[in-house]
Amino acid sequence: MSTFLLFSTSSCAQLLILILFLANHAQCHATSKQHHHYTYHNPKLPPPPTTNHTDTKYEDKGEFTSSKRFEGSSNLVDLKYHMGPVLSSPINIYLIWYGKWAPSQQLLIKDFLLSISTPHHQTIPSPSVSEWWHTVSYYTDQTGANISQSVLVVGEYSDTKYSHGKYLTRLTIQEVIISAVRTKPFPVDHKNGIYLILTSEDVSMQDYCRAVCGFHYFTFPSMVGYTLPYAWVGNSGKQCPEVCAYPFAVPGYMKDGPGALRPPNGDIGIDGMISVIAHELAEVSSNPLVNAWYAGEDPTAPTEIGDLCEGLYGSGGGGGYIGQIMKDRNGRSFNMNGRRGKKFLVQWIWSPVLKACAGPNALD
Ligand SMILES: [Zn+2]
Fold it and tell me: What angle do CA 277, 301, 248 make, to 5 degrees?
């Protein structure tokens, strides 16, 4: 919110931003990376109308506006390191499937997660999911250790009986984690672990749709016995796709515009979820205990490395559009490749090197 004031009240700042943007633009041309074999298009869709992918425990303060997006380069983004840990050891994801899931949906989400660090013998064409994670891995802790480029799914737990109900809160989600870690072999892994809770489309969450599509935080020792970083993302396919699966669904008032994009895997809910999962993984890795990388003065409402680029998927997004992305021969939109020939549309991440949003499908 305060960053928006900088933009609107200071013409000097605006000029500075323009200069920085042009400088960055020129610099990027020198390291041009073209992907000639893909057809790019600019769908002329604005970023999502309601800010949605938010994080941490108490972020629903009505502060989530489009002012958090920075399409161009800016040194005025006050992203700072607050001396806490990042996930620098090889990352183990523990998946908790809450509710009823189709195996094909689970496989698609795992295809994305397992594309982050692909074994060397698998060649995935650029732009790829693992190239997207490179931006995340540029973040370091105070010892200089980078966020790990190794991300594995090491355990899965299914709660098909909705054992904590069909309405979850930010506290009861910790009970879901307790239930999972009490089963064997689903370990307590407070060194390398991320507990990723995914709820099916018939489960509602406190503030879901209205304020959040996903969030991350950590468990409390008083509740769970340990401090475990976790993230939650819900399937919005039925509840609010125009908010949480944007741009695969658009709000009614935008129906006269270019319309919704076709999801890369034909599933609005899951394809939309994957970008939210990506956002949360990037942020839980760079700010697992909410004391490492974030902008803003208030640690209860941090602006993190995904928030800064929310709704931005490609180059040329500076005019208030989502940017240049690709279409396959069936007209499905995507901006990166994953394993087993899968394609995904995933938002960009703030780069600490470029001081701008970055993604593997950058054209300039
Ligand atoms: Zn976020």
Answer: 35
**CA 120–ligand 1 middle distance (angstroms):** 30
> At 167, which helix (H) or strand (E)?
strand 167-168
Q: How far is the CA of 216 from the centre of ligand 1 (A)?
A: 8
Q: How far is the CA of 31 from the centre of ligand 1 (A)?
A: 29
Query: How long, in residues, is the chain?
Result: 364
Residue 308: both structure tokens together:
């800064």
Evaluated on CA atoms 98, 99, 103, 108, the torsion sign reads: negative
Q: How far is the CA of 230 from the centre of ligand 1 (A)?
A: 13
Question: What are the pLDDT tens digits along the chain (364 aa)?
Answer: 333 323 333 344 444 444 444 444 333 333 334 454 667 777 777 776 544 334 433 333 333 333 344 445 565 678 999 999 999 999 999 999 999 999 999 999 999 999 999 877 678 999 999 999 999 999 999 999 999 999 999 999 999 999 999 999 999 999 999 999 988 778 899 889 999 999 999 999 998 887 789 999 999 999 888 999 999 999 999 999 999 999 999 988 887 888 899 999 999 999 999 999 999 999 999 999 999 999 988 888 899 999 999 999 999 875 568 999 999 999 999 999 999 999 999 999 999 999 999 999 998 7
> Which residue, chain included where needed, has tokens 């041309």?
29
Cα distance between residue 208 and residue 236, in whole Å: 9
Distance 347 CA to ligand 1 centre (A): 11
* Residue 184 CA to ligand 1 centre (angstroms): 31
Which residues are paired to 294 by β-bridges? 80
CA of 79 to the centre of ligand 1 (A): 13
Ligand 1 centroid to residue 299 C-alpha, Å: 13
What are the extents of the domains in the chain?
33-358
Claim: this prediction has a pTM higher than 0.90: no
How far, in Å, from the CA of 279 to the mean position of ligand 1?
6
Ligand 1 centroid vs 284 CA: distance in angstroms? 9
